[in-house]
Write a structure and sequence with these properties.
Length: 418
Amino acid sequence: MRLKIPYGETHLTARIPEGLAVEFVLPNKQPAAADPAAAAMAAVYNPLGDVKPPRAGQTVAIAINDRTRPVPHEHLLPPVLGGLRHAGVRDEDLLFIIATGMHPQMGPEEYRTILPDDVLESYRVVCHDAADEAKLRRLGETSRGTPVFINSDYMGADYRIAIGNIEAHQFQGFSGGVKSAAIGLAGAETINHNHAMMSHPMAKLGVYEENPARQDVEEIGRMIGVDFVVNAILSPEKRIIKALAGDPEAIMRQGIPEVRRIAEAPVAAPFDLMIASPGGHPKDINIYQSQKGLAHAASVTRSGGALILCAACPQGSGSADYESWVMRSGIRSHADVLDKFAREGFRVGRHKAFQVSRDAARLRVSLVSELEDDFLRELLLEPGLDLQTAIDRALEKLPGNARIGVMPAANATMPVLI
């Protein structure tokens, strides 16, 4: 059997020997919107829930995701901007803030990778910095004790909008809604405290109402006062299936069942070998983002089995703290990572090492990427060389009746053992 696996902006190919059973674990095929611009416009002009419109004379701030999220701004933004102009909001009173959370900063020269040229020419755009305390406003604490620090430019606006996608998330349950603002525009202390909840047994893929990390995000969003949200639900090919707009909680109530219907994939039993991809660019832009695909695929791979992750990672690890913590703190094994992380407590960045090691400690994980072999080994990751070699080596250690799974869009897939 010939495999074609998403990888960066292209694909990798390999062959599985004849006679071996191969099962593809895929999102449910759904047609993309025939006219994505019209779908976005219909959503914006027919909002969900009880929303107040902007008014003339108000200042407006829009939180947008960074380059690690494939948000279709070219379709979502025009009806939003047209609506603001119709309401009398002046172009000079609108500010776009790139919601990086604790991801690497984006320089002005990179803004064109996420925003259309006409937007950059007409509006002010800045990038959030979670470490810049002078640009944060404290709002108090959530009921779970999270200290809430949010970008002061966003809080200083009269009207606040967030734009992003709704999709499955490995410990928030689902992304979308207020998350682009509540986490993407938060300070480091806020993000650390919220993300530390990922160790809770209900902080997991597909859990929303009972998920303390996600419900903490919802509470932060209410404290901020996010007035209007526009979210897209995308196909694995990153095309709009559905657009939603309006009150953030109403969007989540309607969007989550849609995502489940698309993303959930039943699996009869764990696999001996899993071959997975986060889904190509930008889902595999770095190890930090690609780990999400690893987690989804590992959830249906048996302990002692093999997992091959195909992720280009052109931007390296995606976290300087992740690199330095693993490489320079005496860590020699995945067991060391888990032990040290438990002793030192949660910190964003090094939490990614914990998440990788949590799966790699029980599986034989290899990474097919653009990264240097020595760099990967320093991060305790086994280089996969090329995909065909990685598959051949994995099969040598597995029984002839091995169950082989393939997840070409792992980040967008919610595998469910039945």
